[in-house]
Design brief:
By secondary structure, this protein is an alpha/beta fold. It has a single domain, classed as Rossmann fold, CATH 3.40.50. About 35% of the residues lie in helices and about 20% in strands. Strand 4 (about 105-110), helix 5 and strand 5 form a beta-alpha-beta unit.
């Protein structure tokens, strides 16, 4: 399994993100997720002035988030040199990217399965350092693979159980559903059935 930056080249993004016959998700689906995140954070009264999309790829989450939070500072960080050159993202890794000020909202979708267990654990700890308010996390787990379309899903990844992720995320975050996690300590009321 190769996780070098060169793996994430133009060919990779054409296959898994751009070609309607072979892509797993759509820009419309990412926009709906962004709308969900925005609505849920509004419901929770979480103010968002700084947004980080780490592993931002083609910007499918960051583009609609910028529209939903027009006054927020939005930063895109990407591992792929190809995408950084093409879109002007900051080149960096979820494992060790740092910033002096944590973000109100951190987005990280389809990134963690590319990392081995040790690097993934470090990445989760780093996401906690980067997050002040909420984390939106999209991760393919081993349970999801059973139902995934294997022709459209990048299978050259490390698959781990949802339990593996939850145990590490719980050290830093409270899961509130829909891929949203609130940074601990949580100082707003979240009802028991809203937690996952």
């Amino acid at each position: 399994m190769s996780q070098s930056p060169e793996r994430f080249d133009a060919r990779y993004y054409r296959r898994f993100y751009l070609n309607p016959r072979t892509r797993a998700g759509t820009p419309q689906g990412a926009a709906k997720q962004a709308q969900f995140v925005h609505a849920y954070l509004r419901y929770l009264d979480i103010s968002v002035k700084r947004v980080l999309d780490i592993g931002c790829g083609l910007g499918r989450h960051l583009t609609p988030i910028r529209k939903l939070y027009p006054r927020a500072k939005c930063v895109g960080v990407e591992f792929s040199p190809y995408l950084c050159e093409r879109y002007g993202w900051i080149q960096g890794s979820v494992v060790d990217y740092t910033d002096k000020t944590p973000y109100d909202l951190v987005l990280c979708s389809d990134v963690l399965p590319s990392l081995d267990d040790r690097a993934c654990t470090r990445a989760i700890d780093n996401l906690a350092k980067l997050t002040r308010g909420a984390l939106f996390l999209g991760v393919l787990t081993s349970e999801d693979l059973e139902e995934a379309d294997h022709k459209r899903t990048d299978l050259d990844v490390y698959t781990r159980s949802a339990r593996w992720y939850r145990s590490r995320l719980a050290r830093h975050f409270l899961a509130v559903g829909g891929g949203l996690f609130l940074k601990k300590p949580v100082d707003i009321a979240v009802w028991a059935l809203e937690r996952t």
